[in-house]
Amino acid sequence: MKPNEIRELFPILKQEVNGHPLVYLDSAATSQKPITVIEALKHYYEWDNSNVHRGVHTLGSRATDAYEGARAKVARFINAASEQEIVFTRGTTTAINIVASSYAKTLREGDEIVITPMEHHSNLIPWQQAAKASGATLKYIPLQPDGSITLADVESVITDRTKIVSVVYVSNVLGVINPVKEIAAIAHKHGAKMMVDGAQSTPHMKVDVQDLDCDFYGLSGHKMCGPTGIGALYGKKALLENMEPVEFGGEMIDHVDLYESTWKELPWKFEGGTPIIAGAVGLGAAIDFLQEVGMDNIFKHDMQLTNYALERMSQIEDLTIYGPTQNRAGLVTFNLGDVHPHDVATVLDAEGVAVRAGHHCAQPLMRWLQVTATARASFYLYNTEDDIDRLVAALQKTKEYFGHAIG
Amino acid sequence: MQLDDLYRRVIMDHYKNPRNRGKFESDEAVTIDLNNPTCGDKISLQMQVEGGVVQNAKFVGEGCSISLSSASMMTDAVKGKTLEEALKMAEDFSSLMKGEHPEFEYEDIEALSGVNKFPARIKCATLAWNALRKGIEQTQKNG
Questions:
Q1: d(CA A261, CA A256)
Q2: I need a labelling partner for A307 at 20 to 30 A (CA). Which of A81, A134, A292, B94 fits?
Q3: Could you tell me the residue range of the domain that residue A233 belongs to?
Q4: What is the ipTM for the molecules in this complex?
């Protein structure tokens, strides 16, 4: 499918915003949804809606099949060894919190948790809390001047006292693709476990958790054309089996007595309450859609757009681009002279161009970059070079507007 | 959507030449540090209050044109006002953000009325005024 054909499948992109055709460049915050996903949700609610794993009736079976079918799709999509290794969660944040709160109970003083300063708050605060609760030490792999990390630094930070390492695959600010497979190998050499924050990587590239040999992997459905409120935690079966559930009640029980209870087997023991059934169905439809386009094609497309954007944007005077120029995926984070990113985003919005402005849930990284906030344009399979041209034209307008207004 | 409704000349003037930017050297000032957690904007507001009257106010902060110009205007407007008058002004400012048209003795503030049409920016404009409310609360509690 060509970008223009793909674009046709996203109804939301056909509107005008502030008198201009919408250019949506905020997919790193949340992606738009193709018509197939919207229709899958509609079909589920119009025909199959029922609770899962309990109804004897026909709708109960259909809903269960749809829900478990979506799990199988997620498992195949990231090449998990078994569907039992896929726990449905609200998103990546919940996935990381499940692992971190479980580790908080087993870590002790002297143990180490290793992360990086480029982490999203969702892969930072859970580990801060786990360190506080257990007395373990939180350590950081330092960043190079361009925001990347080196394996030499990884080697020197991870020690035999390290119990868990958690690193983002693709940074939501710098766009840098981290060598998580190599980091996992180093972690394992020291007997530590490896978690990968896959919120930004899963939408844009082929992910193979067995090839990465990571122990845990989190993903968010809404960033990969799926609905909000659904995501997944992948964990190696032997590890998940030894972890305690975080939520109790509802779907996760096996036998309940007045004073003692037991849990279902994997993956259901981690899915308390009535699960996110419609969300999972929508995520399954999103995966079907992404696979039809092809993850390799999506990766190539997003990289080409990013390179085109870097080339065009670097020609704008006074525009600062953050992060490495090589090995980055899907987004460009920038500031325009002295104009605050909020003001940039407001002027761009008046031109119909939607970008993110703020700290991108990465305050420690903002301090490292020595800025309080930045603007960010992020790209996905429905974006085209025309969108980048519109962004560049709107940025020129912003310069003129503020040059005039302030000067 | 007219950008000029938002970025009026008087706002840009306060942004470019902020009034009362800085810190008091003496300790005799109430200090309120406030963040806007969704975007990273920051303000540190200082007020010198004597006999229930705001004698002087200063601020330092990081933020966009709207948040900094609002802080500049607010610190100018509260000088010489009683705490009650300052609180009334903060309430009037909330009304202004809701699209109402209260009058301000310090007329520059009315230039911020256009922010109402940009819902995402209201929190930028109100940051300094929220700091003022906290400062008043803190002074009254300690007083």
A1: 4
A2: A292
A3: 37-292
A4: 0.84
